[in-house]
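User: Structure tokens for both sequences below?

Assistant:
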Amino acid sequence: MKISLGPLLYYWRRDAIFSFYDDVAATPVDVVYLGETVCSRRREIRLSDWLDIAKNLRAAGKEVVLSSQVLLESGSDVSAMQKITANGDFLVEANDMGAVRGLAGTLPFVAGPHLNIYNLGSLQWMASLGASRWVMPLEMKRDDLSLLQQGRPAGLATEVFAYGRMPLAFSARCFTARQRNLPKDDCRFSCLDHLDGLMLRTREREEFLVLNGTQTQSARVYNLVDVLDDMRDIGVDVVRLSPQAGHMKEVIAVFDAARHGRLTPQEALARMQPLMPEQGCNGYWYGRPGMEQLTPAVVV
């Protein structure tokens, strides 16, 4: 089983991004996804910079994938997507059907989690277009994935989002700018002030959601480190970790130790607690509300 590092979902300063991926090069991550998937106004890093980072990571032995933006809103967004799909060097993760169309029948690609592949027919169709790997939608439960795995087309690898705040929705509006009473087109790059997103709390002061520009995330951190053996049993090929501002190298190390059996599931889960920016959750994996935290012993 391989470990992947998903695309950076937050907006960080240029130097911080380069430093982060310099550190990633020395970790046991097998696959690294690069690119802006959330908002085209985030311009600290351009495509040429992502390609430079990609080449450095490939030289360090990593498989590199360029991720396309999820929600395209303008002609310039489409043009940026087309440049990614036509890069001619690195595998591409298609996160909308426009990117799929640009790749279908010409190059293999990764079918991203936002394509919402929930049934065998969709999975087979995506494979016929050239997908070499697909990422399970975050809300899919373990039993449904197991069923799809039984009919999965030959040669198609499966990847599961296994750690990080879950990207739940995208909008044409920027909620981080709105929180400051700023229009989206003059957001003053407010996301730079929130390295792991902006926490939204209820009136009772409970963590509810995280605002990340045009993206809404879960407040709790999805964490499946204790079910890696189960994933392996049902044929999962890659587990995806989502970048966070702190302790990322330690998070990767725990997952690496767990996949190689150096930590028991219980030990790995305990090691993860101080490394997460918020409480953990795993409800979706068990077919329950996503914010719940369950163990196999209590699942009915």
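Moving on to the next sequence.
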Amino acid sequence: MSNTRAVPDTSVSSGAFANLLGMLPGVLLLFVVGYAGKFLEQFIARYGKTHHLVLPNIEYVLWAILIGLLISNTVGVPKIFRSGVATYEFWLKLGIVLLGARFLMGDIMTLGGLALVLVFVEIILALAFMTWLGKRFRLAPKLVSLLSVGASVCGVSAIIATQGAIDADEEDSSYAIAAILALGAVSLFLFPLIGHALHLSDQAYGVWTGLAVDNTAETAAAGALYSDAAGKVAVLVKTCRNAMIGFVVLGYAIYWASKGQASGVENKAAFLWKKFPKFVLGFLLISTLASVGFFSKTNLVALGNLSRWAFLLTFAGVGLRTSFRDLSKQGVRPLMVGVIGEVVIAVMTLALVWGADRAFHL
């Protein structure tokens, strides 16, 4: 009988530890940039108060994004920071999950019914218009599909999910992502200005932003730039859109498979579960626990603060991950389709929200 003892394989655990260690510099950079944005907001406010000056109140959200944009488009983000900076999507999802503590289920149900109707209408109209527009500009068919999904459902996440489902080229995916990211950056500056010019309520602005801005990170930022209340509503409505990813991607997968240009979907339920954004379930779980009194008031305050810190890292990542040099290399026609499509979708959703607000008092 052999006395040889099996030696535990530590390669997996050591590799995971190395990956986590490699992310640390980038995560620290996210924290520094985000905190710098918060510091600038508070410093300007204190300076104006001390010297009796009326200075513009620029939210930390915008400062964090601007600092990130300045770094990424001047010196660039060195390789050592990139894996950590890429975790901004994790912080975004964590922030949304924790945000559930600030929403009772009654609030979600009150907003959710109307928001869900508007989400369905937005997705149908946006898909139809973007498909028509892409064909008019004679873009590659699968590129049209990627742009349509990105503009109607959930930005970069939906594009990546759809790319694998319809066997699209990585180049087409890069074009679509570039267009969506470029327009998302612009929305951060334009949407709050338009909202204030039209005197939209926090609720109406939040619903509009949740419907019209594609990437969840930019949605959260554009909402927070208007007000804290508008930011909460924007994230909630955007979460409703995110929940539709699996269904829309499944539809495109079946369509392209029927043309023999994508792999068939054998198990539709498993496909939906794979594509479904799990952080939506986390948001609903935390909200349910908050609604039944599982958390104390101290717990709720702590969860709310953690959510804000997670979003702070997210907003820093939005700026650090946006390179105008890279966007300019992706070609003109996809960007033109994206610009025209996003403007039409923004106007269309604004009209929907305006009408819903007058009829149902958002």
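User: Anything stand out in the second?

Assistant: The two ends are 77 Å apart (CA to CA).
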